[in-house]
Amino acid sequence: MSFEQIMLEVLKTLNLEFIFLIAAGTFIGLIIGALPGLTTTMGIALLTGITFKFSGHAAIALLMGLYVGGVSGGSLSAIMIGIPGTPANAASVLDGFPLAMAGKGAKAITVSRSASILGTLFGIMCLAFFTPILSNLALKFTSAEFCLLGLFGVLISGTMSGTDLAVKGWIGGIFGLTIAMIGIDELTAWHRLTFNSPQLTGGLPFIPIMIGFFGIPQVVEALSAEQDVLVATLDKSKTKLMEVLRHWKVALRSGLIGVGIGIIPGIGEDVAAWVSYGVAKKASKHPEEYGKGSIEGLVAAETADNSCIGGAIIPLLSLGIPGSPPAAVLLGAFLIHGVRPGPMLNFEFPAFLYQSVAWLLVATLFMRFMALGLARPMQKILTIKNAILMPIVAVLCAIGAFSLDIRYIDIVLVFLSGALGILFRKGKYPPAPLVLGIILGPLVDTNFRRALKASGGNFSIFITRPIALVLFISIIVLILGQLGVFAAIKSKFRRIKQTT
């Protein structure tokens, strides 16, 4: 397909219907992101059920608009009430809320909005540039490389996304891989872990699990943390983009950090924001201003979490491996609507990458005009008690899951996976590895057995090819590093050096 044909396909999906859907998705994302307790991941999962009857590309455009709006929208509540709407905006509270309480709420929101736009645009540019390169590299992969890549994604997600022991992330990932094996085996048609239940022969549906796993714990946590909310007042002052561009070095560095972390499977926007904020504070000439209303700190946090959107979609489109929890649910929506991301995407849908770039650009444009306009209405909405709002959310979780296949078992699955999500939170087990385990389970399982079949049962196939060897060594180094082997060796050599 020529460049002219690709652009024609892009223009076809920028008609009034698509523009309206992207605008609606961005608006819904801003609302969901701004309401504490509702996350971008949960919003995409809920809306996927509603968009089941839409045409494939139209539904995906809507969900991408929600992704952009959701990550940006969380800064509204972070600034106005000091409670992040989503985990991605937790770092924005440190400087956004002090600015608002000092009577500079509108200024903080316009700074946040401008930084969000810069970050999203930077991520989109990286998406357009790096995805074809990574896709071409992935064409050289065989079953061995795909198996190791999937396993590496689960392990590194467990290592970096957890706040406790790395082994807890690995346990979650292995549990997700086990869930993915339920149903009829793709290679042999053997029934695995079905317990002779016809309901399980097709495997466990991804979307109801994600709705319950992320939605129900948020509802329970919000209800248990009921408290009076202090809402800051909005001034009439605004900040021009040029004032934000004065911090262009911070914005550029934060954009690179956001994209880099976004590419790593399963990590997400919240990690990108915190890492960027920490780096910016260390590099700042005035670190004492951070946490007290620093414009620079707010720019660092908001640029990074929004640039992470483009970064997370890069491995999603090129390898079929999501870079963040919202991207993981987006992958489920892709598959439901007939789009299979991965190395063959450019052959099956040659214009899809550029269509995605166009949809994200349109969503960013709508975010530019919607964010500040929503600030004053959100002052009223943010005062709604969780006791009123959260039960409505729980009902929407059940409806969203039921609307997919009109099966009551999906409603049961929502609340069962919700209970699992609560247990994960109580035990400080990170959710991202389990999500990646479910997503990447078929990739790891099927390609592991295909590789062994192709090699006649010889395990050396996983180390004899250059790319496979690099991935295998990376997995071993990752495991040994997290188990403290390298630290122990370093400590031993230090003691030997001291004694000599």
Q: Output the number of helix runs.
A: 21
Percentage of residues in DSSP E strands: under 5%
What is the 3D shape? globular
Helices and strands, in order, run as HHHHHHHEEHHHHHHHHHHHHHH
Question: What structural class do the secondary elements suggest?
Answer: mainly alpha
Helix share bin? over 70%
Question: How many individual β-strands?
Answer: 2
Radius of gyration: 23 Å
N/C terminus separation: 68 Å
Q: Can you list the strand order of the major beta sheet?
A: 1-2
What does the largest sheet look like? Answer: 2 strands, antiparallel
Low-confidence stretches: none
* Integer average pLDDT: 82
Short account of what is shown:
The protein has helices spanning 3-12, 16-34, 40-50, 56-80, 93-138, 143-161, 166-180, 206-224, 241-245, 248-263, 269-283, 295-319, 325-336, 345-348, 352-381, 386-405, 408-426, 431-454, 461-464, 466-482, 485-499; strands at 183-184, 191-192. It is mostly helical.
